[in-house]
Amino acid sequence: MPTLLEALEEKYGGIGQTSDISDIEPEAELIVSIFVPKRPPRLSVPQVLVLNDCGIDQAGSAEDLKKKCNTVKELDLAQNKLENWNEVFNILSHMPRIEFVNLSLNRLQMPITAPPKMRIENLRSLVLNNTKLNWFSVEELLKLLPSLEELHLSLNEYTNVLLDTVNTEDHGNNNNNSTCDPATMMSTDECCDDEEINCTEGSSCCNGYLKTTSAHEGVRKLHLNGNPITDWYEICRLGRLFPKLEALVLAECPLRSISPSPSIEENNPSVDESAPHEHFQNLQLLNLSSADIKSWTDIDRLTKFPALKNLRVQNWPLWSKCDSTEHERRQFVIARLPNVEILNGGGRIGFEEREDAERAFIRYYMEKPESERPARYTELISKHGKIDPLVKIDLRPEKKVQVKFIFKDRVENRFVDVYKNVTDLKFRLEKLFGLPASKMRLYYVDQTYKDQMGPEEMKYPNKQLYSYNIATGDEIIIEQKEVKK
């Protein structure tokens, strides 16, 4: 399998040595005013270096990496064969300007047992999707990345979060005699009494074990899509770890609730509702699409997130349980969340849409027993006052009307179904008057506009009768078609 340098040579051809301004002697700097590159720009290593799916498993010569890659700012090594973190560190240590790295789909589940004594100062975005990276390695990486702002940990099969921050005082009150082996993420002391909880997946159940992780003040965006995490209290650990978090993407995570404790019961008034949002004071964007949430109570909990403006809550089981249209469900969510400005993508919620949603919410719960009305109902009543229910007006045409049929000297009054078409009517009249439908012409006479409009031929066989605005008392004249000689 090729090294990174070999893959680089294969993709970009013969790449010569890069010019480094530090190689120019001080005297030369005073004389030379025009920089002449040692190689044509076409053969330069680009600042955005894409080498995904090249089979790379090693870094290559450190000296050559330093010469050739010192200007790289973005590096995409997704879907390669990297397994050893030391090789990754060898690569990044020779890219001093690196700001973005994608290592997705590399087999990086091996723990970082001996992190290098360095800090990658400029790296702001790191993508580690589907790498099966364990939480101890995540912690070690965070120590090396002081400027990190965006972190992607999707599809890593996390069921728990073994990262947390604790106060020094709390830490001193816990029994920390046991130790934890980073290679297995297991406590060397007796770990779990409950066999159903697997500590190797990041559970914090281990007796006498408390994992302490320093908070990272830089991370603003965290993507955790497609991980089988079911409890919000695991997500709260991430809130403590990243106190400045502004965007949290949890799509395809089967969260069962946004409750602060796994033991919370739905609609339990004794539960302290401050906990779900306590560690997300700066969170502006939250994506919970395809969560396993079935209760409106969880929507109400989202009102407590003080900075939340952008929310995605699509594909919840709750929506399929609701006996309402998609538009009505959107109105109910908007009415419950006064601070949310963008719901499920698209443009901002305007003043008119919000007011219509809040009024529709009031009207809906006006007809419900007081015990079923959420707290938001009272708030909206104080804002809008009591609202008269909408008058239900059925604008559909009457299904049956009485029409006068005239054929020669014969007159018949009959009820007709206005949702039938002209052909259906002719076949019915064929039985009544004995005139074949194929030899029949029909003329509609509106009694209201009889003098102004006159008869209108009903010449379109598939046109439904209500489209003529037929009303009770109108006439239809039947004539026999002339036989051509």
Structure summarized in a few sentences:
The protein is an alpha/beta fold and 485 residues long. It contains 14 helices and 17 strands.
What does this structure look like?
Residues about 15-25, about 25-30, about 165-210 and about 265-275 have low confidence and may be disordered. It is built from 14 helices and 17 strands. Helix 3 (about 60-70) links the parallel strand 1 (about 50) and strand 2 (about 75). It is of the alpha/beta class and about 475 residues long. The protein has helices spanning about 5-10, 25-30, 60-70, 85-90, 135-145, 170, 230-240, 295-300, 315-320, 325-335, 350-365, 375-385, 420-435, 450-455; strands at about 50, 75, 100, 125, 150, 180, 185, 220-225, 245-250, 285, 310, 340-345, 400-405, 410-415, 440-445, 455, 475-480. The strands form three sheets. Strands 1-2-3-4-5-8-9-10-11-12 form a ten-stranded parallel β-sheet, with no helix packed on it. A five-stranded mixed β-sheet has the order 14-13-17-15-16, with helices on one face.
